[in-house]
Amino acid sequence: MLKFPLLCFFVQTRSLLSVFEEDAGMLTEYTNQLLQSMQRVFGAQSEMGLATEQLSQRLLEYEKKASRSFSLNSLHSELANQMADSMVFPLIQFREKDLTEISTLKEIFGIATDEHEAAMVKYSRLPKKKENEKLKADLVKEVAYTRRKQHQASLQYYCALNALQYRKRVAMLEPMLGYTQAQISFFKKGIELVSKKMDTFLSSVSNMMQNIQTQLDSEAEAMRMSQKELLSADDAIYMPDKDSEPVNRTLIQKDLLFFLADSLLQQVFAVRFLGSMAVRCGNNREVIYEAMRQVLAARAIHNIFRTTESHLMITSSSLRLIDPQTQVTRISFQLEEVCQFAAHQENGRLMGFVVEGIDWSDGNGEGEPSFSAFVFESNTEGEKICYTINLAKDITEAKKDPEALAELMKNMPLTNDGKFLLLEPETGDTDDGAGPEDLESEA
């Protein structure tokens, strides 16, 4: 600890002063470096929050995943704010207040010391003659004034240096404590978010992906074997003028089914989405009829009669609602999620289907089945759409058995070139010639 000098500097005091000043300089340099590191951590965490927010925007079409991502985004943003308040700000305050004060007081002390030394030099050069008594008295007053000024400056400077020795201990611990507490809070809330409920959801998605991959591997192996069988045929079948037995086209078509199964069915219908609502179950057509009634009633009450045309694409794996102008998929469902479908009993242009999902809001960690009905108006009979969905499900089921798939395809009409003709094109055949946007529903 620096002792306060009364009127002059002692050798011990000067030695301690140099040690304390050197320590203050090293502390200032270290604080600047530590602050740069902490600001870098804060910047990275802020960028993490922004990146997570951008990811959330990309996942908006997947409602449940997006909600989880939004929650994670809020956690990252909260962590960045806590770092700014409890880690970066205390260190900036220490640098701007304590270290800047030391630097200012050192400068004041140096000026006072220079003034005192200048007064002492003038006093030591004073002649010893009697007629210089008045000048001597003035110099004595100047020396006393500068000495008092230096003494006061040294008292303030030494007090600040002594206080810094204690303050620096807290100043170095406070930001690290704030950083640690912010991280602990982040992980605690993260554990609450990623609870058993989320674990179950992720496990379900992981199992689904593994099942899909297994199915794809199986189909790829079947296609490879079929290709090998076709390529091993006798070269004689390729001769243009050779008389030979008719080619067994049924066998060829059967083999080709393995290549065409995911892309064989791809039918597009021009439809207008009327609305959707939650229903109590997915194994009863009555819920679809009730959904149609309520959706149409709601549109009539609110005077909503104009709708936007979309394209409903049905394949052997999914149903997709596509914007006809941009070709962007507005919403999509896996075929196995569609558990019921039906056309209106009186208005043949109306149809709807029920999609099964999982409701995670009950908090029991397992999730409960949820069902939603979607109602559409088409340009042709709704039964045609229902037939196509049913055909897609039949193809999906028959793909498990090559013989059953071949038998199913036998009953489908063929074009003159021998290719399968599933259904006639349906989009763009609006009866009244209206454009794809803002069509008036007849429902």
TrEMBL record:
<dbReference type="InterPro" id="IPR004148">
    <property type="entry name" value="BAR_dom"/>
</dbReference>
<dbReference type="InterPro" id="IPR047237">
    <property type="entry name" value="PTB_APPL"/>
</dbReference>
<dbReference type="InterPro" id="IPR027267">
    <property type="entry name" value="AH/BAR_dom_sf"/>
</dbReference>
<keyword id="KW-0732">Signal</keyword>
<keyword id="KW-0131">Cell cycle</keyword>
<dbReference type="InterPro" id="IPR006020">
    <property type="entry name" value="PTB/PI_dom"/>
</dbReference>
<dbReference type="InterPro" id="IPR047181">
    <property type="entry name" value="DP13A/B"/>
</dbReference>
<dbReference type="GO" id="GO:0010008">
    <property type="term" value="C:endosome membrane"/>
</dbReference>
<feature type="region of interest" description="Disordered">
    <location>
        <begin position="422"/>
        <end position="443"/>
    </location>
</feature>
<keyword id="KW-0968">Cytoplasmic vesicle</keyword>
<dbReference type="InterPro" id="IPR011993">
    <property type="entry name" value="PH-like_dom_sf"/>
</dbReference>
<keyword id="KW-0539">Nucleus</keyword>
<feature type="compositionally biased region" description="Acidic residues">
    <location>
        <begin position="426"/>
        <end position="443"/>
    </location>
</feature>
<feature type="domain" description="PID">
    <location>
        <begin position="269"/>
        <end position="338"/>
    </location>
</feature>
<dbReference type="GO" id="GO:0042995">
    <property type="term" value="C:cell projection"/>
</dbReference>
<dbReference type="GO" id="GO:0023052">
    <property type="term" value="P:signaling"/>
</dbReference>
<dbReference type="Pfam" id="PF16746">
    <property type="entry name" value="BAR_3"/>
</dbReference>
<dbReference type="Pfam" id="PF00640">
    <property type="entry name" value="PID"/>
</dbReference>
<protein>
    <submittedName>
        <fullName>Adaptor protein, phosphotyrosine interacting with PH domain and leucine zipper 2</fullName>
    </submittedName>
</protein>
<dbReference type="GO" id="GO:0005634">
    <property type="term" value="C:nucleus"/>
</dbReference>
<keyword id="KW-0966">Cell projection</keyword>
<feature type="signal peptide">
    <location>
        <begin position="1"/>
        <end position="18"/>
    </location>
</feature>
